[in-house]
Amino acid sequence: MKPIKYLREDERDALWGLTITTVRFEKIGPDEPLPKDCGYGDHSHRFSPERGRVLREYQLVYITEGSGVFESRSLGKINVSPGMIFLLFPDEWHTYQPDVTTGWTQYWIGFKGTNMDKRVLNGFFERATPMFEIGLNDELVGLFRRAIDVAQHKNAHHQQTLAGIVNYMLGLVYSLGKNDSWNHDDHIVDQINQARILMHENIESNMTVQDISAAVGVGYSSFRKNFKKYTGLSPMAYFQDLKIQRAKDLLRMTNLTIKEIAYRLNFDSPDYFSTKFRKKTGKRPSDFRS
What we know:
Elements: H1 11-15, E1 19-28, E2 58-66, E3 68-72, E4 76-80, E5 84-88, E6 94-98, E7 104-112, H2 114-121, E8 131-133, H3 138-153, H4 158-178, H5 187-201, H6 209-215, H7 220-231, H8 235-253, H9 258-264, H10 270-281, H11 285-289
Antiparallel strand pairs: 1-7, 2-5, 2-7, 3-4, 3-6, 5-8
């Protein structure tokens, strides 16, 4: 998945009430510095963890692996661990960085507009409480990756599509942040969610469900049992459903052939891909595209 940094909007896009300025996924390894994030026309995205930064927009930053620290003018300093997401506010000094011993994996999306301004004005989001402990959530990861896809292809009215994704993200984050049922000590649930995130991140790789169970440190037999108990699906079925959803996006947004999509998603053959796609959607890939 090719990273996207900055997006432009026009005056009509702004009338929609929410426009998206940046979206990205990044893995920062141990001892690796955070990117300085230059390149935006007004240099407002330039970032140094030592000096901090003030943005002209909002950003959601989601940490799914590793640990570090976050600090803002209104909150002060707080430790960051996997499953935490923080909201950056315009005109609010902040800084953050991963621990040098762990690095971290981060997703972020930037946006601005009157819709979000009203939510802040009405107290739904506050500068003094920008951190949300929502746990590892594969639905949110899927939304970030969907946003990256839309930003890459920039089809007609992509800003409005991205605005819809961000509105869904904000509602999800707000709801999860208010839900006290997330259990920090439920190790099995955390492993399953970590596995689901890995599936999202490896849809187009040759990683198998056995590789994923090994990556989260669980034997496959136990992993399969717990995964099905928690999600209602076997790991294989869940992973295949994600691949079919990805195939639908590729059929909508690209000119890739059905054969190219099948092999890109690591199906054994185009015929096998078509059979699985039709079973899941009720249509052949060619009919779905047309």
